[in-house]
Design a protein that fits this description.
The chain has 156 residues and is α+β, with helices and mostly antiparallel strands. It contains 5 helices and 5 strands. It has a single domain, classed as 2-Layer Sandwich (Heat Shock Protein 90), CATH 3.30.565.10. Helix 1 packs antiparallel against helix 2 and helix 2 runs antiparallel to helix 4.
Length: 156
Amino acid sequence: MITNNDRSVEITLANRIGYERVAMACSASFAQLHGFSKERIEDLKTVVGEASVNAMQHGNRGRSDARVKVSLKCDQHTITVQVVDEGNGIEAFPPLPDIEKIINEDKLITGFGLFLMKALTDQVEFSKLADDGHMVKMTINMKEQVNNAEQECNQA
């Protein structure tokens, strides 16, 4: 877990859909205090919301007695977010979502939240904790993330 200091915050959420908005608002305020751009704050809010909902629905399986912990820490130009649930973690990652199907068919597609977390952060890790929990750890840099394909084109 993130250690407490003057550049960190931790909140504990009831396992109730809608409470992810509390974590999103907290993360936005935290990032704003540390000078992040509006665009990166929106990215942060999106990934915190997605990770929190996944923790509630999939990790904690909707159990009303379970909790979700969201920790944020700022080091220089980077925010590290940890979202911890009381579940067993991801057994198998779903395939990448077909964005065209999502747009054209207006269908609920699994794996879109994970796709967003990977696309909008600079690093994302999933790990099982020793004390019966699962953690998603995401890193987001202050500067806009450069798409890997775009980065490769610029290097060529």
